[in-house]
Amino acid sequence: MARRGETIELAVLGLLHEGPMHGYELRKRLNLMLGWGRLLSYGSLYPALKKMLRGNLIEEVAAPAGPVSRRQRIVYQVTDKGTEEFSRLMSEVGPAAWEDDNFDIRFRFFSSTDMEIRLRVLEGRRSRLQERLDRVQRELAMTQKEVDRYAAELQRHGVESVEREVRWLSDLINAERGAQGHSVAKPIPPTQTPTSPSTSQ
Amino acid sequence: MARRGETIELAVLGLLHEGPMHGYELRKRLNLMLGWGRLLSYGSLYPALKKMLRGNLIEEVAAPAGPVSRRQRIVYQVTDKGTEEFSRLMSEVGPAAWEDDNFDIRFRFFSSTDMEIRLRVLEGRRSRLQERLDRVQRELAMTQKEVDRYAAELQRHGVESVEREVRWLSDLINAERGAQGHSVAKPIPPTQTPTSPSTSQ
DNA sequence: GGCTGCATGTAAGTCGTTACATGATTTA
DNA sequence: TAAATCATGTAACGACTTACATGCAGCC
After folding, report:
1. CB contact under 8 A, A158 and B36
2. Percentage of residues in chain B with pLDDT exceeding 70?
3. Which residue's CA is nearest to the C1' of nucleotide C20?
4. Does the model's pTM come out above 0.90?
5. Which nucleotide is nearest to A4 (CA to C1')?
6. Among the listed residues A21, A79, A87, the one whose alpha carbon sits nearest the alpha carbon of residue A54
7. How far apart are CA A188 and CA A7, in angstroms?
């Protein structure tokens, strides 16, 4: 996973750009976005917030809006330095940016960057997946002799999933390219129903 | 990720049941199977092998087959105790078993267990994914007011991917159920082309 | 003769989880 | 008033990665 520390920082900065928030709330949102699996623990989040406070990336909000409900809680907001750092991190389009978690976070905050960056991240991600696919299929061809049926099925399913993801990325890339001109708005055509009505348990 | 240590142990034991191997080879295969992302490093594998040696789960093979090419390498094979441990781990059908990596490994070695276990793992995995889906969609309904287009697209794609996986699991479960009688063979109907011809970069 | 790939290992450090500890507030 | 949830934090621990160190073997 490498360097999720930076991932958390980026995510926190991004969320706080959507409005001041306290730690508990941040954790909930964080788990919702990178939540397709592991949960982020307090033991991770709070130290990270402390660190960001020390680095002046975020600061505590003076007066909490409501005069009632004076619960013990610390609301944070980004500082100017934090905004700078956020932009810097978002424009870092190296290999680290196409890693699973890092990619998701960047994508989530794509509205905050311009099209050039978006395209580079999207394309980088796509070629990384493509490489994975090629590598696996190459090695698969070598080993394929006596394959276990379950092993084979797992491979098949894995390859298929990645292929779908590649197509998804290609669609997004085309959408970005098609939106030439306005470099920060409406890049995504309605791909499907906004609220999927399936998942009837 | 929690407890990948056990995952590695299980994977190594499983692979060694398919024949003796040395560390380097193990790593290659391991990366191929759980390789949809992070690579397992030597700093992880070798200490794990040492630990398994100490625990008498595996042992060094005396004479390497070929009389030529006497390269420095240590070939391992499972002991009886290792086989026992492998069976034990494979029949552990708790929440840990439906975690991403753990599930993949177990599935990969499904041929080594009986149908009862397979079904429990498959069903556990499915209901875990279902829960994730429900939780996200419930919370999504609450937050959905002013959603960022990219954030929305990410959610949509995520939900769709998990839904596909649920369908995949359901198919597998039906296949297992349909194969009543022979509890260890031919559970999977040919779902598609064995070697997918796509992926023309 | 040098580069690349095979092969094994260790040490240090990072990152994050688990478990613990505490307490306020809302709801049944 | 008890239980659930909100809310913040720390200490200990574990797992894995990075970087380092070493050396053989095959190929150009």
Report:
1. yes
2. 78
3. A43
4. no
5. C15
6. A79
7. 25
Which chain B residues are Cβ-neighbours of A143 within 8 angstroms? 32
Structure tokens at A40: 């982020």
Q: Does B132 sit within 8 Å of A158, measured CB to CB? A: no
Apex CA A162: angle with CA A200 and CA A164, to 5°?
Answer: 60
As a whole number of angstroms, the distance between CA B126 and CA B135 comes to 14
Residue % of chain A over a pLDDT of 90 = 55
Domain B4-63+74-108 fold:
Arc Repressor Mutant, subunit A (1.10.10)
Contact B154, B136 (CB under 8 A): no
* Residue B35 confidence (pLDDT): 67
Could you list the pLDDT tens digit for every one of the 201 residues in chain B? 345 678 899 999 999 999 999 999 999 889 888 767 677 899 999 999 999 999 999 999 976 444 445 677 899 999 999 999 999 999 988 888 988 889 999 999 999 999 999 999 999 999 989 988 888 787 777 666 668 999 999 989 999 999 999 999 999 999 999 876 544 544 444 443 333 333 332
Gap from B106 CA to C9 C1', in Å?
Answer: 29
Structure-token pair, residue A113: 């960057």
* Token code pair at residue B185: 């063979």
8 A C-beta contact, residue A10 and residue A105: yes
Distance CA A22, CA A38 (A): 21
Indicate the residue type of B129: L
Q: Report how far residue A136's alpha carbon sits from residue B32's, in angstroms, rounded to the nearest whole number.
A: 7
Ranges of each domain in chain B: 4-63+74-108, 114-178
Q: CATH fold of A4-63+71-108, please? A: Arc Repressor Mutant, subunit A (1.10.10)
Question: Closest to A150 (Cβ–Cβ): which among B108, B159, B165?
Answer: B108
Q: For residue A31, what is the nearest residue in chain B, using CA coordinates? A: B136
